Amino acid sequence: xxxxxxxxxxxxxxxxxxxxxxxxxxxxxxxxxxxxxxxxxxxxxxxxxxxxxxxxxxxxxxxxxxxxxxxxxxxxxxxxxxxxxxxxxxxxxxxxxxxxxxxxxxxxxxxxxxxxxxxxxxxxxxxxxxxxxxxxxxxxxxxxxxxxxxxxxxxxxxxxxxxxxxxxxxxxxxxxxxxxxxxxxxxxxxxxxxxxxxxxxxxxxxxxxxxxxxxxxxxxxxxxxxxxxxxxxxxxxxxxxxxxxxxxxxxxxxxxxxxxxxxxxxxxxxxxxxxxxxxxxxxxxxxxxxx
Length: 291
Prior knowledge:
3 domains; 48% strand; mainly beta; Jelly Rolls
């Protein structure tokens, strides 16, 4: 009865071809990226010799960077890199700075990192504090914007009927000179109806923004618009709604110009009582994009 060697009826992987190895039928070797099977036992005959080997698989075309392949381990060198297609092939775009976003520059142009643009940009926020006499903001006005808006909410003065005083600031100091000109018109609202109120400030050393109650249940809210504070004679317009501590609601619209050669980089507000405010208010400041 014939003996069958099962190991001789399957392919035998021999690894990379060596001219010193004796190959037998069904041995499989790798040579220059392709694979070959031995069809006739031999030693020292290259796999490309069709008398002894048949090709099983062919090596593909070597990739070249930017054409039909790339070595991304050399293209991407730093954490945060991304790869994109430029005019000639694959290219690296290094990480942008913190807060930037990836943006397209249109057809036929490479992508880039950029800053999100907005017509209304948040510049500063200040959480409400108790027992402070003055709230100040320095270096908040820059050449990036011509106009600004500040929202002061939940303000409570130090005493019933206490008023809120505004001043410009520069280089960390308040402008207390008597050159604040302006005033306001408003309405006082009670259960009996409404009456008109007004105030003129001519050469004052502060701007009166409104008054209110130190009762935490009766808060005052103010919106201030700043107009070109870095230029001489900066100005503001404002609206305030407040409780004055005597069962009255007051709604005010006003404005002021500082009539002197003065450039402001910030502002402050304080309570007219000279003491600490019960609540300094939550302040949010926005810059309005220049036209």
